[in-house]
Amino acid sequence: xxxxxxxxxxxxxxxxxxxxxxxxxxxxxxxxxxxxxxxxxxxxxxxxxxxxxxxxxxxxxxxxxxxxxxxxxxxxxxxxxxxxxxxxxxxxxxxxxxxxxxxxxxxxxxxxxxxxxxxxxxxxxxxxxxxxxxxxxxxxxxxxxxxxxxxxxxxxxxxxxxxxxxxxxxxxxxxxxxxxxxxxxxxxxxxxxxxxxxxxxxxxxxxxxxxxxxxxxxxxxxxxxxxxx
Length: 229
Fold this sequence. Notes:
Blueprint: H1 3-10, H2 21-29, E1 32-36, E2 41-43, E3 51-65, E4 71-77, E5 82-83, H3 85-90, E6 97-110, H4 111-120, H5 122-148, H6 151-166, E7 168-169, E8 174-177, H7 182-189, H8 193-206, E9 209-211, E10 215-218, H9 221-228
Antiparallel strand pairs: 1-6, 2-6, 3-4, 3-5, 3-6, 7-8, 8-10, 9-10
Helix pairs in contact: 4-5, 6-7, 6-9, 7-8
Pfam family, one: cNMP_binding
InterPro entries: cNMP-bd_dom, cNMP-bd_dom_sf, Env_Response_Regulators, HTH_CRP, RmlC-like_jellyroll, WH_DNA-bd_sf
Keywords: DNA-binding, Transcription, Transcription regulation
């Protein structure tokens, strides 16, 4: 891949939406491109928000450990997603740990650097505000799921979120595969692994999903969406 094409692909994602060419170039030139092997940590829960990351290629898993020491998968971040944005923009410690689930490249900006760019370029600031708003809405939706929805609806909602975050087209449906596991699904839904396995088994018999050794295929996303409501 030539350098121009690589730079063109990098200038995409949450912060670059609707930017004119000059502003996009300024934002891109201010960033550093970094590579993380699978399993490497971008930042730990509780770290100072010193860097903002935007995923270029690969996948990042966000996890949080509660006071009892239990780890929970919160979400997966793919190309174009900003990682750690709320903490950086509001300047409080990272509330979760970000780990590369597969070899991942990112653009990174220092916190002071990106905050200065937000002040200087209103469109970049508007993009940042949109992203923070999307994350807030997602958290409200997830809280509503935990308090208002049945277990089956919560699992269906998680599967649909994973389809949008990490799903890929397969021969018979939308596949959720490695590095996502059923344990991730159970943590994101707030239910036990056994319960998720039972529900997925029932849905396989009903033709909603097909299960493989390391994948879940959503055969009928429309029916899953009906279950999720």
